[in-house]
Amino acid sequence: MQTHTLSLTRKGVQLRRDILTMITRAGSGHPGGSLSVIDLMIALYYGKMKIDPQNPAWEERDRFVLSKGHAAPALYAILADKGYFSRDDLAGFRQLGSPLQGHPDKKKLPGVDASTGSLGQGASIAVGMALAAKNQQRDVHVYTILGDGELQEGLVWEAAMAAAQYKLDNLTMMIDNNGLQIDGTNDEVMSLGDLAGKFTSFGFDVIELADGHDFGQILDALEQPAENRPKCIIAKTIKGKGVSFLENQVGWHGKALSPEQLEVALSELVVEDVAE
Amino acid sequence: MNKLATRAAYGDAIVAAGAKNERIVVMDADLSHATMTCGFAAAYPDRFFNAGIAEANMTAMAVGLSEMGYIPFISTFAIFGTGRAYEIVRNSVAYPHSNVKLALTHAGITVGEDGGSHASIEDLALMRAIPGMTVLVPCDEDQTHKAVQAAVEYEGPVYIRLARMPSSNLAEQPFAIGKGSVLRDGQDVAIFTCGLLVATALEAAEQLAEQGIDAAVINMYSIKPVDRKLIHQYARKCERIVTLEEHSVLGGLGDAVAHELLANGACPILKLGVQDQFGQSGKPDQILKHYRLDRDSVCEDIGSWMRRD
To answer: B60 in contact with A at a CB cutoff of 8 Å?
Structure first.
């Protein structure tokens, strides 16, 4: 493994520990989708985005919108690790009075670029941000990550149409394609059909990743330029990735691990065990 | 009396505001010739964005525009902007207190021939219920210009309710968010009203005077925040309150006024408006008459209520 991807992989293990600990302490939250999306976000925050944690309001920063806002623990783990706020604050997740709300609240927490949680809306907000940045001729790239189940919201496709119409080559939409949602698989609940074909026909440059946990693949996809059109990265991921008994389980969408289960999970998440 | 629809006044006002402030951008959902944002589109094509027939996306996109420093005014019909896009207004505009202005036209039953599907009678109720939302209903051309300016200067979400039907231009009034304006003083009853029924209330008050009823008329162009002081002042002075609005009597101006008076005990309130019904097709003035919101009906209803005991 290359040094960079090795350190990102280790970061993934470390942050997964934070995510699961946070959720267990709160007694509620969304472990499955947080663990499927975390590597995409690590690639962005540690390998791609132009940000300054010391100056969260820096106007020329790249923007990130977690459209699948229920994966807030993944965002909080990263923002704390980056120094936007103290890691101690993670203990307040979902507690009364905490800035770490169940879903990201930009008014309360530094580093959150958009309040999300109601599915589909983050994608539209990101399109608006990218349109503004392009119109203002600013060197700002906007990244948004959506869940696959989220794509069942019609608003996403309204946003996709607008992104192509306004030729937003400063917008990257990433799909955390773990194939599962609350009531079952995507196919059982409401099949998404040919996702790559859909985004292509909507006017996106589409890149499909066979492994959305492989930092080499993710970073390569992020580096590929899109000309005159928005980019969509469809990343095949594993819900609950990293913990044997969470992986690919529908039942772990929105349920906290018990303290005992957490202990078992943490025993599988050992940074030093990541092989070079 | 000179008449102009507040939607037309808005079309002029937003061009004027855009000339003074380059942060102002406008979005529309394929109705720019009805909402009258077409003037802005022509004057500032690089600051006008058509969202297509996608009100929900327009609303959330505007949040993104505001995050990047713009002051977006978004326009479509009130029924869609507050109804179809409601949850986006609630969660993406208001919850983060985004600096997005909803300037929505064709509100109320006077939308006319398009009928009940297009007549928003609950938009004030929907917007009023959202924490931190400012809700303004200008009554004429001058007030519309002032409402737009106030919305530009205020940092946060604002809903400006605009009408299709032309309304009479009244004498200039001072305008401030959270204030109301007394247009006629009176002793017996205070009529709190807004929008194009302000002129109707003034005419009705003239007619009531002939029956020996001395009615005050108060223009409550700021539905939220509402001018509590004025409400309590006139409740004390007149001891009878009438609210008059081109909106459902559930959740709009009537309830905003009644809410303030509940804690203070008895003050009889008559809420005139759309009585829990949908609108329908017709000429706007016929519709107003049908729903008893024309001058004569208002006068009759207030008169008989006043004489009842």
So the answer is: yes
Domain that holds residue B15: 3-168
| Domain at A3-273: CATH code | 3.40.50.970
Contact state of A159 with B57 under an 8 Å Cβ cutoff: yes
Per-residue pLDDT of chain A (276 residues; tens, 9 = 90+): 688 899 999 999 999 999 999 999 999 999 999 999 999 999 999 999 999 999 999 999 999 999 999 999 999 999 999 999 999 999 999 999 999 999 999 999 999 999 999 999 999 999 999 999 999 999 999 999 999 999 999 999 999 999 999 999 999 999 999 999 999 999 999 999 999 999 999 999 999 999 999 999 999 999 998 889 999 999 999 999 999 999 999 999 999 999 999 999 999 999 999 887
B67 → closest Cβ in A114, A118, A162: A114
- CB A107 to CB B65 under 8 A? no
CB A44 within 8 A of CB A215: no
Which residue, B134, B168, B202, sits at the end of a domain? B168
Task: Tell me the chain B residues in contact with residue A114 when contact means C-beta distances shorter than 8 Å.
Answer: 63-64, 67, 92, 96
Structure pTM?
A: 0.97
Catalytic residues of B: 55
Given a contact cutoff of 8 angstroms between Cβ atoms, the answer to whether B116 and B279 are in contact is: yes
Cα A84 from Cα A64, distance rounded (Å): 14
CA B227, CA B238: separation in Å to the nearest integer? 17
Instruction: List the structure tokens of B151.
Output: 């919305």
Pick from A105, A107, A125: which is nearest to B64 by CB?
A125
Among chain A residues, CA nearest to B88? A121
